[in-house]
Amino acid sequence: MSPSPVAPVLECRSLSKTYGSVRALDNVSLTLRAGEVRALLGKNGAGKSTLVNLVSGAQRPDEGHDSILVDGAPVTWSNPGEARAGGIAVVHQEFSLIPGLSVAENITLGRWPRSRSGFIDSAAILERARTAVDKLGEPLPLGVEVGKLPIAQQQLVEIAKALVDQPKVLILDEPTSALNAHEVDLLLALVRRLAGQGVAIIYVSHRMKEIPLVADSLTVLRDGCEVETFGVADASAERVAALIAGESATAARIEHRECRGEPVVLSVRDVRVPGVLDGVSFDLHRGEVLGIAGLLGSGRTELLEVIYGVRKGTGSVEVGDRKAERRLPRRMLARKVGLTAEDRKDTGIVPMLGVGENVLLSARGRVLPRFWLRADDEARIVRETLAKLSIVASSAAQPIGELSGGNQQKTVIGRLLAAEMSVLLLDEPTRGVDVHAKSQIYRIIRELGQSGVSSIFVSSELEELAEVCDRVLVLRDGRIRDEVVGADSTAERLLALAMKEGT
Fold it and tell me: Quick check: pTM over 0.85?
């Protein structure tokens, strides 16, 4: 008589979640057994985070779609604390550590034991933290402030925090995104060791080369739906890329331009950032829209920051035929090179200032007089910028923080245009904006290219790189590994190249 299969430790039955008119998750089911590592794959917006939030109690499923079972028993979480107590732990991509507290204090944070007299029991904290670290199987200095540890050890502290409550299911969200190759190997070995102890693991990652090393099975989500679940032995990079990309990869796109015969306006040579970039070189041509593709943690943002001078790195940058020495943002702006930052709200806009004031932030002292205001000239520039970019605001005085995300992003681009930038470094320029605003931004960037303005377009949405860019460079393992030109740059091909193993 054959042995009965291992009972599932976690079952999700037809989970759905709707936000307004958006169906973020649509009847997704998942079964996970003790000791199994399930990779969860999909592009941004596929529904991975929503599924994780429902399983971990951060959000509730839609009514009628509340079938989450742990060890065969239905559960309904009101908050993450209840889920944690019920055996579900999450390690998020963004650390939730307090730098000034010790490793032991961080591991037991929120669960500090007290003595009979009511005081915090330091000895019990150490003992509880030591138990979690023993389960981890990796040494950690329990008395050291966590802010003094390297990133790899901070990641281990986050995992140890999750192990304090002895979870049945551990969810790891992009756990290797900030780690170097050696640290990645150590973490993958740790995941397998935890699975060997019977912990069921959901492993969320964009890095296809890690999946065969760590996972037993994988589930692909797309547009909120489960596309397919299968064993890792059947998971070739090409097959997974096709499932993730879907039909959108073959959608009709604009006609691309060949710009490599045009003059070089920006030349980057041998740019290096320890642990991130390892000798990146390329040229940007006049009027070209050059895409940079790469998985999360590949160094896309860091590359733009080094070029612009907000991050230290080695290597050379030439604007036109002049080398940009001692790069700083104000010097790069003077060379007509501007950056739109990935984090629009924190570094891209001044929320309390009006739309017009935000447009003029970089123009004053460059295309406007340096020491006094010219109301007529300023009003003209603001008026022309708002009209050219179809920015919707009640007036130029309306605080930009009151605008939609799309109009805020168009204003950020408009500020660079008002300052007459000739090279735009665009880091995730459509993040958090709706479909209509995205199409407007695409059109703006293409029209700017036709007028001679050059752009480097960084995006985690491979479809938009395929749609907008004349040429796409694939950044992988710290270097430019591939170049795709024109209509060959389908989202499916870019994803396969970004996940490709080796050189």
Answer: no
